[in-house]
């Protein structure tokens, strides 16, 4: 903040004048005054006490007197031990409110052609199953992070890598061949990703039945898993796919198209999108060629069995397999191939991978390999590592069909939002169309906010019922406050109360109102911090704090019934800008806010 920079300069001059102490702005400790004490900004004086040869209380008092005499924006001060609490003149905060009001995208930095280009990868689904709760956290984090990086002045490319090849895909394909009876999404009236996912579960059930049958004949469990007919057929199908078998490839393409249609519908409902989608079926061969290139340059080496490895012992890691003895690639190779294509498509300055924390080691290795292969952003790639999301009942398993389907969860959230809103009377006098739109916003807002308010590095438990509470740190609580403010502003307009951006600078306002302005002033720093720490939770929890403070103000002070015209105008302007910042903040989380509730 400019205010804190100026205060730091004043403190530097004060300690030089009063005690002949030379110091720099960077050494001045400033912090927000704690709520239980009067003041806005606190100067920590302990570092000057020894050289000044005076008690902390005396140093604080002398510094406070000097600052009040030489810095008109400080109206008064108090000293608590070694802490000098400064109260900033109300006129300063009123001017800041006018500045905030004048800036439409307050707190955001505009992009230019010279802005860094950041690519964010998220989602990364497999085409053998629909998206589930774990994917929801990934998509919400990736989309929100992209918006936060944009708000920090970066040009952003949102990208997705679809895992559309491998044994898991062949399992769904084989099950459809054997048990599908030529079923299609249209013939069964189901989403394509759900249909394919059902056959993945069907494969696993049949596979387990075959294992049990083999074990019953005296075969060991390990041998039964390896030699179950269904698994052998799936492996043969994968070999046929890699050999370019036309029949297998046609089935693969048809079933993937079903899945893509389902994915697109889920992404649209969830409110996330991508600028560019890559497919592993295209990138894995690119990775092999890049590894061969690294082999020629001596970056990698080949073992006697023909496999290709990277020796990372010098970096404190182990040796990493890149190509198997039969020449087939591993996931690391595919990631190298994807990086190659991305670098050809975009002049990337920074690459951010949104992937769960179980892949921490993978990305540590990938960073080193990309750097060795000459990718300028490789060494500094960011693995946005996040924790797992579970339900109160525990973990989910795709093969057993116990995952929480993303579409089902969104339906449940919207239905719960409608039920809860009706019980509380929040949809009275709304048309059917308004009810549908508002409950959609509330349901999805509850889901998104509950997930994004948690530090992404932590594991979390998602509780649908808790997320839709209209009180507390929830999306609906924030959405309702926004709608409440918009209602006040509409009533002001209906009553002919004009709202302008000019505020009387000598207006006396309360500490609560001053504190609200200060929270608004903090918003740009919050956006910067969220970008620096790659943490949407910083935005979420700031927004809750802002809304909580506004609700206390709304409860304690009159707005439309205030008789003092200047004070009424100020409170309307304050309310308007709280709503603006709430809407901007929630947009960074991918959350819509309803105009009425």
In short:
The protein has 597 residues and is an alpha/beta fold. It has helices spanning 2-19, 46-52, 56-70, 90-102, 133-151, 167-179, 185-188, 192-216, 221-227, 229-242, 246-270, 280-296, 331-345, 360-372, 406-423, 432-452, 464-467, 475-494, 511-533, 536-556, 565-588; strands at 30-32, 41-44, 74-80, 83-88, 117-121, 155-162, 276-279, 301-302, 308-311, 319-323, 350-356, 382-386, 389-390, 460-461. A five-stranded parallel β-sheet has the order 7-6-5-11-12, with helices on both faces.
What does this structure look like?
- The chain has 597 residues and is α/β, with parallel strands linked by helices.
- It folds into three domains: 2-88, Gyrase A, domain 2, CATH 3.30.1360.70; 117-390, Rossmann fold; 406-588, Orthogonal Bundle (Isoleucyl-tRNA Synthetase, Domain 1), CATH 1.10.730.
- 56% of the residues lie in helices and 11% in strands.
- It contains 21 helices and 14 strands.
- The protein has helices at 2-19, 46-52, 56-70, 90-102, 133-151, 167-179, 185-188, 192-216, 221-227, 229-242, 246-270, 280-296, 331-345, 360-372, 406-423, 432-452, 464-467, 475-494, 511-533, 536-556, 565-588, and strands spanning 30-32, 41-44, 74-80, 83-88, 117-121, 155-162, 276-279, 301-302, 308-311, 319-323, 350-356, 382-386, 389-390, 460-461.
- The strands form four sheets. It has a five-stranded parallel beta sheet with strand order 7-6-5-11-12, with helices on both faces.
- Helix 5 (133-151) packs across helix 19 (511-533), helix 12 (280-296) crosses helix 13 and helix 18 packs antiparallel against helix 21 (565-588).
- The longest helix has 25 residues, at 192-216.
- Mean pLDDT is 92; it is low at 394-401.
